[in-house]
Amino acid sequence: MLRWSINLFRIFGIQLAVHASFLLLIAYYAWLGWQAGRLPGLLWSVGLILLFFGCVVLHELGHSLIAMRYGVRVPRILLMPIGGMAEFDRIPRQSSAELLITLAGPAVNFFIAALLLPFFRQDLLGDQPLAAYSAAELGAQLLLANLIMGTFNLLPVFPMDGGRILRALLAMKLDYVRATFWAASIGKTLALLFALLAGLYYQHYLMAVLFVFIYTAADAEYRMVLQREQESRYWAEMARRVVAPETVKPPQPPLIIHGPN
Ligand SMILES: [Zn+2]
Questions:
Q1: pLDDT by residue (tens digit) across 182-209?
Q2: Cα 153 to middle of ligand 1, angstroms
Q3: 145/205 same-domain check
Q4: Quick one: 51 and 149 in the same domain?
């Protein structure tokens, strides 16, 4: 699925790519714009969605540039209709590094919002509706989009940035796997609550499906960390046996790490 992508250009040595389904999103917004206001509506709608995803790229660049300072390689930033994804070759286990890398994304959104605020404060506070297709409307839309993007990403739920921030904070006290277990458990509980709230109370079914998807992603994150941990312990044990065969003890039962019950 992730291979169906189109490479655009490189920025700070990182390949920017869009998933093929992204083109469908542009087509959808072009159609919405055309319905609302023919050609000017189409240009406005497509321009707005491209600027919005420009902010998504800046958010991902925020993560990436800080990660690169910690020696992480970032081969690609991929844009999908649901958002952006920076691909890292590894995630530093040092909690302070993970914390800074993760905070950098939402910080970029709040920074953009803060830059825009002085220009559009008057328009936002005024009781007059903003003129259609005006710079004021454009700025207000981008300001709002960045505030929502920054805030939504801070929800303490994997795979959102907030989930990673929570894990990094927990990992300052607990070991990494246990910190991931608790961060994922808190995230899964919240995702279920949000899904129920969205579906049953607000009857916003798309949002409910999104939170169910987030629930599965949180579960997958914990399983992935657990599996990596088991693999690295296995290889460490193998290396120890090869390097110091005389110290080999009788075979141990396979290591299985259970989360606290
Ligand atoms: Zn992020």
A1: 888 888 898 889 889 888 888 788 888 8
A2: 6
A3: no
A4: yes
Q: How far is the CA of 191 from the centre of ligand 1 (A)?
A: 17
Mean pLDDT of the chain: 83
* Of 103, 104, 213, the residue nearest 158 (C-alpha): 213
86 CA to centre of own chain: 8
CA 154 / ligand 1 centre spacing (Å): 9
Q: Report, as residue numbers or ranges, the catalytic residues.
A: 60
If asked whether residues 82 and 194 sit together in one domain, one would say no
Residue among 96, 48, 30 at smallest CA distance from 69? 96
- Report the C-alpha gap between 67 and 182 in whole angstroms: 24
In tens, the pLDDT along 100-149 reads 999 999 999 999 999 988 777 666 666 666 667 777 778 888 998 999 99
Secondary structure of residue 84 in the 3-state scheme: strand
Number of domains in the chain: 2
Residues 132 and 169 in one domain: no
What distance in angstroms lies between residue 8's CA and the mean position of ligand 1's atoms? 21
Distance 217 CA to ligand 1 centre (A): 15
Rg (CA), the chain: 22
Task: Please report, for residues 25, 156, 211, 256, the alpha-carbon distance to residue 162 in angstroms, rounded to integers and kept in the order given.
Answer: 26, 4, 14, 28
- Both 20 and 136 in one domain: the answer is yes
**pTM of the model as a whole:** 0.76
In the prediction, which pLDDT does 220 show? 83
* 144 plus 202 within the same structural domain: no
The residue from 127, 154, 181 where one domain ends is: 154
The reply to whether 171 and 147 lie within a common domain is: no
CA dihedral angle for residue 153, residue 159, residue 164, residue 170, rounded to 10 degrees:
120
**Count of residues in the chain:** 261
